[in-house]
Amino acid sequence: MNSNVLMSQQDMSKAIARLSYSVAEKLPTENLVILGIHTGGAVLAKRIGAFLKANKGLDIPVGVLDVTSFRDDIVKEKGYQDKTQIGVSVEGKNLVLVDDVLYTGRTVRAALNAINELGRPKTISLTVLVDRGHRELPIKPDFVGKNIPTNLNQKVDVKFSETDGYDAVEML
User: Fold this and answer.
1) How many domains, in total, are found in the chain?
2) Contact (CB, 8 A) for 88 and 145
3) What global pTM score does this model have?
4) What end-to-end distance do the CA atoms of the chain give, in Å?
5) Which of 10, 24, 58, 150 has its CA 20 to 30 A from that of 16?
6) pLDDT digits (tens, 9 = 90+) for 110-119
7) CA 128 to CA 51: how far, in whole Å?
8) For residue 46, which phi and psi values (nearest 5 degrees)?
């Protein structure tokens, strides 16, 4: 498959810094919890949390939210184990829900259903590295690293050094 690099490692670092600063400036940092959607959103959430700690002195809990059980387009494999790891209650918290790519909105809908099972947060804000359009549900991110218009037959793939050995956003 041919791929085109849409964001380099440097572009991603700048976007993550902007997203982190936006979260810190526009949301109350008291009772804030960052939840990354497994897998790419979880890596991004950890980076945002680490950036906020290093650059703003904010020690915000970061968790992983596995939405597999709440998807309407994925069948769980036999022996599936939920990878949700939050470590704090979401009840009454200001949640920052993080994903790497926003597309149809179905993953975010599944995440909202998963969060509902965990408790009732005070607020939920959506942060994405890439918004590629083509929404099927009325979902709009609060914070976006980059808008990348795509065709329906294209795929946007976010690579993270933690999981892929390098940072980039590629179009396949």
Assistant:
1) 1
2) no
3) 0.94
4) 7
5) 150
6) 999 999 999 9
7) 16
8) -65, -40
